[in-house]
Amino acid sequence: MSLSPTLTGLDRPELRKAMEEIVDSGFAGVQLRVHDERGEWAGSAGVRKLGESAEPPTNGHFRIGSTTKTFTATVVLRLVAEGKIGLDSPADDYLPEFGLDRRITVRMLLQHTSGLFNHTGEYYDDGTVAPGIPWQGQEYVDHQFHTYQPEKLVRLALSKPARFEPGTDWSYSNTNYVLAKLLIEEVTGRSLAEETQRLILRPLGLSGTVVPGASPEIPEPHAHGYYRYEHAGQWKVVDVTRFNVSWISAAGDMISTTEDLHTFFSALMSGKLLPDTLLAEMRTAHPKLGYGLGLFVEETDGGTICHHNGGFFGWAALMYSTPDGGKTLTASLTTGDAELDFAATAEAFQKARQRLIREVFRGRQAEPTHEAAESAQ
């Protein structure tokens, strides 16, 4: 294992040790960036690519998975501020072609209280699974470069029973954010990529952040992510660095860097992107797992932290901040050929995030959020 911290101030041996532990738990590589009262610190550990010794670049691009949802929600709320969208208006007003339940509001999409079936599959409390699009195994790999149209993802979800009546419960559904993308494009007449550039990326100078659409490419420099799975009685390891992630759409398709995620989340939390009233709405959490509008709000022994992690096979991302944006932690984890199944990967991710949060925010975390399992999807 190799370590290559890039320091702007004192060395942080506790952070280097945390990265070592993450790699030792089975991850191929990790890059970490912390901004706090001691300044900025960035480092990496592990390997950039299997079979090579070079560590991940500390300025590397990576797939951020469901951290994308915070960007998507911010674009929607900026359009609310511009008077183009009503937060509590029926989503059906903007997207009548789907025949959505009129009780489903824009707010419910952003907070996962719509009850809509998750197009990537549903896991029920009794242990049963209702499949959606292929998201694991050989079928997932076979669709590595397949382009999914967002409208078809929504129609797949709408062909399945809703989980609950709109607004009566909470359940994480990627379909909500596919609808948010279509809503943005309907009211603006521009693509989500264009609106994200206009409202977030260009004003903040986020040159390392990409809305890839159906492109499988990822800008250099970057580490590699791998997917290990069993097929026909044999274990296989596939490089999933180049991947068409249109299957997740605006619920998790973006690419970024630890520096860009820091700049974005710090600006968002400190009020530079949204009016105070809408930022307060964003941080008003549903009592079930503490989800606001596109982010989690978590109480720890060290105080309140806001975050949205994400990932799927090969990749995981961490994005944390204090409510004022003054202290942030952003990171990327890549999986390799370690013998970890889905549950083991989720457990390793949960331990990694707990270790880092304890070191940076000095607080014991509350109950695990949905993100621990979701990062392994």
The assigned CATH architecture is 3-Layer(aba) Sandwich
Biggest beta-sheet profile: 8 strands, antiparallel
Radius of gyration: 19 Å
- Mean pLDDT reading: 93
- Principal-axes geometry comes out as globular
Helix content range of the residues, please?
A: 25-40%
Would you mind describing this structure in some detail?
The strands form 4 sheets. Strands 1, 2, 3, 10, 11, 12, 13 and 14 form an 8-stranded antiparallel sheet that branches. A two-stranded antiparallel sheet has the order 4-9. It has helices at residues 13-24, 68-81, 106-111, 137-142, 150-158, 174-188, 192-204, 258-269, 276-282, 342-361, 371-374, and strands at residues 6-8, 27-36, 39-46, 62-63, 122-123, 129-130, 226-231, 234-239, 255-256, 296-300, 303-307, 310-312, 315-321, 328-335. The protein is globular, with a radius of gyration of 19 Å. The protein is of the alpha+beta class. Residues 16-338 form the Beta-lactamase-related domain. One of its GO terms (molecular function) is hydrolase activity.
List the helices and strands and how they pair.
Layout: E1 6-8, H1 13-24, E2 27-36, E3 39-46, E4 62-63, H2 68-81, H3 106-111, E5 122-123, E6 129-130, H4 137-142, H5 150-158, H6 174-188, H7 192-204, E7 226-231, E8 234-239, E9 255-256, H8 258-269, H9 276-282, E10 296-300, E11 303-307, E12 310-312, E13 315-321, E14 328-335, H10 342-361, H11 371-374
Which key phrases capture this entry?
Beta-lactam-related, 31% helix, two-stranded antiparallel sheet, disordered N terminus, 377 residues, Beta-lactamase, 11 helices, eight-stranded antiparallel beta sheet, Serine hydrolase domain-containing protein, single chain, alpha+beta, 18% strand, globular, Beta-lactam/transpept-like
